[in-house]
Specification:
Belongs to the phospholipase D family. MitoPLD/Zucchini subfamily. It catalyses: a cardiolipin + H2O = a 1,2-diacyl-sn-glycero-3-phospho-(1'-sn-glycerol) + a 1,2-diacyl-sn-glycero-3-phosphate + H(+). The structure is a single chain. By secondary structure, the protein is an alpha/beta fold. The protein folds into 2 domains: about 1-45; about 50-225, Endonuclease, Chain A, CATH 3.30.870. About 45% of the residues lie in helices and about 20% in strands. The chain has 7 helices and 7 strands. The protein has helices spanning about 1-45, 65-70, 85-95, 110-125, 145-150, 185-190, 200-225; strands spanning about 50-60, 100-105, 125-135, 155, 165-170, 175-180, 190-200. Strands 1-7-6-5-2-3-4 form a 7-stranded mixed β-sheet, with helices on both faces. α3 (about 85-95) packs parallel to α4 (about 110-125). The protein is elongated and about 105 Å long.
Amino acid sequence: MGDSINFATVTTTLATVATVALYFVHKRETSKLRDALALQRYRRAHSKPSFEIETLFFPDKRIICWNFLFSKCRDESCGYCHDCEAPLARLVKTLQNAKRSIDLALFEITSEELTQALLDKLKEGVRVRLIIDSEYMMTTGSKLGKISSAGCEFIHDHTHGLFHHKFAIVDSQLVISGSMNWTRQAAIGNYENVLLVKDKNTALDFEKEYAKMWEEITDRLKSANEKLPDQAAEF
């Protein structure tokens, strides 16, 4: 009888200890899970998104100071714009930040500011390539001669349609795309939009299309027995 009572007591005690132990284990694991979820929410709230998009709207309200863009303006009475957040200043800065490559697909290029940014990058050893429309590469004020002489590789689309793209891929990381032709008129006179999209997947999509266009256009030029304009003597 006594042994039965002792056995029952021991059994009850063990069951109680096990229950208490399970309770504390459950409490500890629940606390860990709660902390992990809180950390996850914190990281999500405070971490940078996987992509960033900046929107630029033109025309610029005022003409940007050249020295402000490319060196330093020391003229205290300068009447030009010195706003680093002005649309054209942001666009130039994006090109200036390139470290390895800039791939351009443009209808035309006459902008002095954007051309200078490309020339500076070429001087630094950044690879710059350009696909441009056949007709508008010769337009009045075209800067194709300048950048090709400085080392920009380029081909021109020779079809019956227009090569109407206006985009650039910077360092395989960032895409510049929008309605704006790379001209002075577009920057200071037209209503235009430009998106700066920092996203590797988006950049990869544009790179694939760029490589496809480069191959197709090069093949068409060769099959038409046209000399690839790798030098700017004709300009």
